[in-house]
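Handout for the seminar on molecular recognition.
Each group receives one record of this type.
Step one: identify the two inputs.
Step two: read the structure output and locate the region that could contact iron/sulfur/oxygen hybrid cluster.
Step three: write two sentences on what you found, then compare them with the reference statements printed after the record.
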Amino acid sequence: MFCFQCEQTAGGTGCSQAGVCGKSPAVALAQDETVVALIRLARAALRQGPVSKETGRLLIEGLFLTVTNVNFDEADIRRYNALYQEAGDALGAGAADDLSPQTLFHGDRDIVSLRSTLLFGLKGMAAYADHARVLGYEDPAIYQGCAAFLAALVEDHTVADWLGLLMDFGHLNLKTMGLLDQANTESYGRPTPTTVSTHIAPGPFIVVTGHDLLDLKMLLDQTEGTGVAVYTHGEMLPAHGYPELAKYDQLKGHFGTAWNNQQAEFDNIPGALLYTTNCLMPPRPSYKDALFTTGLVAWPDLPHIAADAEGHKDFSAVIAKAKALGGYDQGQEKTGANGGHTMTTGFARDAVLAHAGTVVEAVKAGDLRHIFLVGGCDGAKPGRSYYTDFVKATPADSLVLTLACGKFRFNDLDLGTLGGLPRLMDMGQCNDAYSAIQVAVALAEAFDCGVNDLPLTLVLSWYEQKAVCILLTLLALGIKNIYVGPSLPAFFSDTVLQTLVETFDLHPTGQAEEDLAAILGA
Ligand code: FSO
Ligand code: SF4
């Protein structure tokens, strides 16, 4: 096997014996076969004319299937692959479309680097497109673009052309994040600032993790009146900000922190666990029996809740498991990383821009010196205390916007307020980078300047492929001077890295205090 798509890749270069994530060589091969089956399907579909909705759905589903920590079940992946192969056959895929999985990661190092960057970005974007699709939001341009980029992966391009493709892709991902933003806000209302408790009450409960808000909504409908409480974990925290989800009394609070702490946090848990998307880690025996997967997530021999033809899911087995486990006898404090008992969320673009006037005036008056967006993924490797250190060191006359699961390093800290606004504001899940971009654009308009001229710095943490698509969107928008860590992608060759550094002033993170001083001194 060879896989280097995530930040925890073995030795910082590539997993070749087994995945650090728990992925076996057989699963890795099956997932590479998924990718070549999708390229084959895309090429055949493009020859027929506009890509159909049915084909587009298969492309995004298949790509999402191969994202880090989603599916570890070889038999399940092979079932999907057979569908993609059949769909390609039906569209007239020929021998010339058959590719060996080895074509993906072999050849000139810079070309492999550029191809991998595009492929991993596509995987991340596919997850967002799939979340929008389940809510009934689809865009033919996204499906068409997805097919075209898949086909482009195995075509010859100059380095300059590859970079052009990556920028075009960044714009398509912006469109996709915009569609998901529309899907989420039209389905569940506009997020409002909300304080979420980390207290776990006695009695039966279910912990829901991952990103799929529709799964949570269906579970909330089905747990009404059952006496079973529901808690979020990891990237589900922002659900509490959506009025149409927060209205359920049994949605009680947040359990623990981010995905990378699940093995410790779920140890001997007396509640049921529902995994809606990534990030699944190899389950420990002490909670394996409590675990259910849904959507594209799968682990061999663990129960999976599938949707029926109408998209409905029956979570009665999860509810029954929660009742059987019974919950804690006494209330528990599952505090944040710094011992805090609450977390806040719901500061999406409307909530922040409602105070745009205050922010603009505070900057003009010299009361607000800088805005930081400290966001991205959390991860299991050491070195991520950088983000805690950075946020703790930000001066009192600065604001910290955050999003995605990296925030659990610091989102229980009380950073106080500035001009009536909390200094720390959680904008939501990783896809809510869309909201952050809207805020940056609106502030630039208010100041009549470019986004790069704002007193704003992005300090990003990456782990998996969604972070790749977001980074490409930010670069495509011309946003410069971004700090990225905790380590750089193994799939960036020296030439690609140098190009990104020179073109976009991309900075690898260094020491928190030094980086902060450099930003504020600039
Ligand atoms: Fe985190 Fe996992 Fe949302 Fe990622 S939970 S690491 S970037 O999947 O998608 O932020
Ligand atoms: Fe290794 Fe990451 Fe690939 Fe898993 S997803 S095999 S940890 S590079």
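Reference statements: The CA atoms of residues 41 and 496 lie 29 Å apart. The mean pLDDT is 97.
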